[in-house]
Amino acid sequence: MTTSFGGSNTAIHKDPKLLRVPTSFNGLKSAYSSILLGKRLHVFHSLSASSAGPTSIIRAVSTPVKPDTSVEPKRSKVEIIKEHSNFIRYPLNEELLTEASNINEAATQLIKFHGSYQQYNRDERGVKSYSFMLRTKNPCGKVSNELYLVMDDLADQFGIGTLRLTTRQTFQLHGVLKKDLKTVMSSIIKSMGSTLGACGDLNRNVLAPAAPFARKDYLFAQKTAEDIAALLTPQSGFYYDMWVDGEKIMSAESPEVVKARNDNSHGTNFPDSPEPIYGTQFLPRKFKIAVTVPTDNSVDIFTNDIGVVVVSTADGEPQGFNIYVGGGMGRTHRLESTFPRLAEPLGYVPKEDILYAVKAIVVTQRENGRRDDRKYSRMKYLISSWGIEKFRTVVEQYYGKKFEPCQELPEWDFKSYLGWHEQGDGGLFCGLHVDNGRVKGATKATLREIIEKYNLNVRITPNQNIILCDIRRAWKRPITTALAQGGLLQPRYVDPLNLTAMACPAFPLCPLAITEAERGIPNILKRVRALFEKVGLKYNESIVIRITGCPNGCARPYMAELGLVGDGPNSYQVWLGGNPNQTSLAKQFKDKVKLHDLEKVLEPLFYYWKRKRLSKESFGDFTIRTGTEKLHEMVDKWEGIPLAASRYNLKLFADKETYEAMDALARLEDKSAHQLAMEVIRNYVASQQNGK
To answer: So which residues are the signal peptide here (predicted)?
Structure first.
């Protein structure tokens, strides 16, 4: 029997010294070890032909028991918790039964796999008031009418009265007490929803364009996202055991998904394990996948561990996929060995192979991703260390085929799908902007009324907005009126800066937040708008602004034209250089910029963008072309907006000689001739007014 094995046995580490960890960790220990019946796994290495150097390829062969003389490699605390958890059950199952309002550290790690984080209100002093945030899993952002209404009810009955639309097309429900967890979880499950795998070290929610277009490529992208989500859903039943007493409420899976999951022809699976793909240890860290169609970058395709793009024939028939790998946003302040990274091309596969290719990539990360230091456990660090050629070689061994080169694609474009659109099947859809994805107050009541009255299904976008689907033409006018009365405006009435802005929740509930994000962004956007007006930028001109309360990057600030990343109380790192189409990575520009000093940094940047940009050049592209050194010079030497003579129809110099004389004097004071002349004039006017 030849199988693969889920440990960190072949990790090649991305850090300044490229450390290599011993390869002895047996990832099949714990509850699954009883299945081995007294045998152990013997690991041996074969060399890759990759130009990147030797690669450890794992095969686990059943052999007689021998004394284990290997040195146990360092593992993170979370790896040990997973190993002893009986597939994500213990001690969470016991902790949920205690009278305490919180759960212990091990259970706190495990409940993430169930889709929940333990939190407390950081605004309050004294005794911590614990609650839980629940995150749903909605491939493609699809939410049925029934599930939406249930989530709306749960927010009022058990949460803080609001729903949060996330950047990964899911709901977050904040403020659920421990004693209410089972009621809330079971309500979601019985409404055909799920929170399974919305957090934790496994595949998270799979993104796809939220637009309900009746087009072959969009429908195929969405079906593929749903199939990938099903393929990588945990199978051991821990979720249903915990929340609905083992009653498994699941929709039917496609035969293709079942076949791909069970296939072990290339050593990807753990035979006889309750988790054939994940094993006892699951993945080293979170794993993110997005699927889209050419030109549509509503999903931030390059920020994912795997990006999948439908490739169609000239007549629109899907034929295969380009695959991109190695994206990820999270980093750690002042640790340059951690970094945001864009995904890069891996190769092209025919459409019938996509599940096998995705599975091979996931298994490569499962086998080789670091499990000793979670800061370096994302797949981007493995690829950064190995190089794409070596990574491709290893993936191909699990895939069983060679990847073809990626197909040429047209330029990408960010699509928001706000406003009214034709679906293509006779129906309409309406995309609604929701500031920071926070559904509350009149907005919440209005959405509830419309969704319930017209029996609408909805979709959540990766930009924290919501789409009402399958609207009959006769309903457009009354729905438009009801939306306006509830404060849900059509996009032309919303400030363009707000339409593309995003922020993470941060304070008061996120335990990782260093400073404000969601609560702070409304005022920051107003201040940016005021600067736009001050430097002469038009109202319809906009930039992509994203703010996070810590460097983990949940709102993807490293793709923004202007990213603000919390690095202290009321303090932000400033990142510049993303572009509106989400295809360029921003660069760190300044550290420790205090909230009250933002104008000192942003005013000169906006001023020079207005005056020195190329035709139709975005702010992000302008900052990249200008370069960091020149941008710093602009900010450091800024003395305020110069008074332009043309604004007052003034012609200061009637002859060349006067100008040259004034210019020579001005240079002595490191000024321009115009600045010195205006100073002389102002002084003269002031002296006359004072009667001198």
So the answer is: none
Q: What is the pLDDT of residue 689?
A: 66
How far apart, in Å, are the Cα atoms of 24 and each of 3, 19, 84, 398, 415?
A: 16, 15, 18, 21, 47
Q: In what order do the strands lie in the sheet with 2-3?
A: 2-3, 59-63, 40-44
Helix (H) or strand (E) holding 298: none
Residues β-bridged to residue 422: 428
SS3 for 404?
strand
Q: Alpha-carbon distance 623 to 137, whole Å?
A: 37
Q: Which two tokens stand for residue 389?
A: 């050629």
d(Cα 322, Cα 349) in Å, to the nearest integer? Answer: 7
Q: Which residue has the tokens 């699954």?
A: 32
Compare 148 and 59 and report the one with higher pLDDT.
148
User: Which one-letter amino acid corresponds to residue 197?
Assistant: G
C-beta separation of 18 from 385 below 8 A: yes
pLDDT tens, residue by residue, 217-251: 999 999 999 999 999 999 999 999 999 998 877 67
Is the separation of the CB atoms in 403 and 348 below 8 Å? yes
Q: Of 98, 4, 3, nearest to 368 (Cα)?
A: 4
Note whether 268 and 60 are within 8 A (CB): no
**What are the distances in angstroms from CA 73 to CA 8, 290, 364?**
9, 33, 19
Helix axes 598-612, 619-626, angle to 10 degrees: 90
- What pLDDT does residue 248 have? 77
Q: What's phi and psi for 63, nearest 5 deg?
A: -135, 165
Summarize pLDDT for 173-214 with one digit per residue, the tens: 999 999 999 999 999 999 999 999 999 999 999 999 999 999
Output the CA–CA distances (angstroms, integers) from residue 269 to 28, 71, 228, in the order listed: 12, 26, 16
Residues 6 or more apart whose Cβ sits within 8 Å of residue 395: 346, 357, 360, 361, 364, 403
pTM here is 0.84
pLDDT at 664: 84
Q: What is the CA radius of gyration of the chain?
A: 28
What CA–CA distance (Å, rounded) separates 574 from 589? 5
